Structures
1.
Amino acid sequence: MTPATGRHTGARTLSHPSFLSGLTASAKKLIIQSAELRKFPSNSVIVNTGDQASRLFLLRKGKVKYYRVTKKGDEVLLWWVSPGEVFGIAALGPSLSRYIGTAEAVDDCELLVWSRKKIRQLAAMHDQLSQNALAILLHYLSEYADRLVGLVSETAEHRLAHALLRLGNRAGRVRPEGVEVAITNEHLSSLADVGAFTASRQLKQWEREGILQKGRGKILIISPESFVND
């Protein structure tokens, strides 16, 4: 295996910024109690690309894929939403805008949902919410910039390694054997902008080399240091 070179963001990226960080316990309680708790079954669409951004969502349980569909009907995965993360931040904007992607439940999901009116009222009361939303948007922008640079400067192997490491840092579960990431080959390949066949072949190679272990809808990263050249 050729270690990934160039950008090392995958190994060092900090966790995704929290929408409720920096708030007092009482403020967090008020904000959470102001939300509507909603459940979405697996494969159900939560919002569609182009819909008016009238709601902000915080995922409590499950996984959500956020994507766009090309003119040919192919999905381009923009973000893999994990518990604790938000989407629909456009609802906080001063003017009514639209969602830039489609959010779909990958498995049974539970979300906290705020109407645009309510979340803007809460942000007016707690400036920290707006600061956190900005931090999250900047985090997304940084991730998308990394992907764009990767498309023109990295091999498919490197892009796949970086995508897997970023996901492990952001949403992985620490196990005695390594870090477990709940994602399928298909979704990982889309997130890394790599063909599904190429991703499957590369993951099998890394598994043979003992760098990771594949399961059904899960990948256990055993040796993350093997992905990068420190």
2.
Amino acid sequence: MGRNNNMKVHGIIPARMAASRFPGKPLHPILGRTMIEHVFCRARLYQGWDELVIATCDKEIADFAASKKFPVIMTGSHHTRALDRVAEAATKLRVPVRGEDVIVCVQGDEPMMAPDMIEAVLAPMQKDRRIPATVLAMAIGEESVWRNPDTVKLIHNDQGEVLYTSRSPVPYCKGAYSEALGARRIYGIFAFQWKYLRAFTEHPETRLEKLEACDSNRILDMDFRQVIAPYPYVKSYSVDSLRDLEMVEAHMRNDPYWGAY
């Protein structure tokens, strides 16, 4: 897909050691490499970045990144939400950010991400520059994922605009679960025009955001659009807790990007 030459694309990978469910997660080894190394190297396979950096408040992560010659930006230790860390890092990028430039947040716990996911999350904004924000929305192919409260599901309208996000199994299914339900989950890749990300992080947390423990519900309360970037079901798993590691390791060797970095 062609690039809008006036639109710069900055990738930021937020990471911190003090994750509540899995302390030290970014530096935990997966098949001999740390999680943050998998994420950075896979994100780097996308060829369209103007800049790609790791954002952290932790010296351990910064030192590891430096040892691998990965660009890193130090941020405050007070952030508990990834997008707040990303927004601070965006103000410190080597390439100055303009209001309509795009900031892509690649969550640091997606060691199985693929570079075409970056293309997917940018595609709606490249087609329509009025779109403020997008989120990668992966089809759910397993009932266990649909029912898992660690997995954030989303509801969208026929125009692809996010209506609500929840940790509950939505949309409701009266009969047996099937892929025909069209359920989708948030995969941890988000894109924002910089002016909207800045507005988002300056806005107080909202009731629905806190109830569901999901940032995207703040966007709905702020009354600007988040559009889905549809992505088909693939065996690509996030790491929310230690028990996810076995599943990730079982599938990572068989994915097309293992060995590409």
